[in-house]
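pasting for ref
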Amino acid sequence: MPTTDKAADDLQAVLDKIASWPDPFPAIGAQLHETILSAGPKLKPRLWYGGCGYATGRSTPVVVFVRVDDGVMSFGVTEKGTSEREDGSLLRPAAWYVDEMDARTLDRVADLVRAAFA
């Protein structure tokens, strides 16, 4: 019986999902995907609730995600991630809408990923 590499299958499913999004989201999603994996090189991508989820293991909880719903892309940190309260508030940042990408935003995403998995 042939064996399958589940991590490789999960990665390919995430890449296929990103490619299936309407423009301009495939290019943005690919940049986010690479940034997330660079910030957390041990992260394991997989499909999660119709989007792309990232966790420390195949069967561990997703901590950050990227998804497109109804023409809107979002990047977020789940309740399993570490998130600091905003200054002067009890709110904890958890999700951001994304419709464009630049180097500064990618740097911020990398910082959020590192903090979420801290």
